[in-house]
Amino acid sequence: MVANCTPFNHPLMILCKSLAVVLATGCTTVVKPSEYTPLTTLKLAQIFTEAGLPPGVFNIVLGLGASTGKALAEHRDINKLVLTGGTEAGRIAGSAAAKVFAHQTMELGGKTPVTVFEDFDVERAVNYAAFGVFRRASSRFRPCRATRRPRQPRPRTWIS
User: Fold this and answer.
1) Which of 65, 88, 110, 140 has a 20 to 30 Å separation from 55 between CA atoms?
2) pLDDT computed for residue 137 by the predictor
3) Where's the Aldehyde dehydrogenase domain (predicted)?
């Protein structure tokens, strides 16, 4: 069984990235959606039911991440934990899943890099990078996908 803890932002897209593999390989899943966006997951369950997915294949547990997510991660029937969220949530759930030797895949608090190559227009690169930094500046949640690490590759030097 795969435990899948999803975040508030892009709850359907992030869930489906791992759910496709889970269902295609014949596994079952328990999804713990963010307490801010549970309706997306509930609607998906309704669609699966109407499409004829057998009972018990796609399951949902609702609750707060700190308590419900931890309890799900440390459950003895969980073979894999998939979690997208913050670093602290990853520490808590990861430690819990390690107690039952569950495999883990986590996407935690991103540090989105921007690489600018020498043949790209610098002014355009700066505009794109600034957009990446500020597009979520008004969000009350930490912008996990905001640009944070601009990079410029070193010029190649060849030894002859």
Assistant:
1) 65
2) 60
3) 2-137
Which burial class, exposed, middle or buried, applies to 130 when counting CB atoms under 10 A from its CB (0-12, 13-18, 19+)?
exposed
> pLDDT at position 26, please?
94
For the question of residue 107 being annotated catalytic, the response is yes
> pTM, whole model, 2 decimals?
0.74
Tokens of 80: 């894999």
- Domain locations in the chain as residue ranges: 2-108, 112-151
Q: Give the per-residue pLDDT at 88.
A: 87
pLDDT score, position 95? 93
CA-to-CA distance for 60 and 75, rounded, in angstroms? 14
User: From 3.40.50.300, 3.40.605.10, 1.10.260.40, 3.40.630.10, which CATH number describes the 2-108 domain?
Assistant: 3.40.605.10
Provide CB contacts within 8 A for 65, sequence distance 6+.
5, 32, 34, 35, 85, 89
Active site includes 27?
A: no
50 — phi, psi (to 5°)? -65, -30
List the catalytic residue out of 5, 107, 118, 123: 107
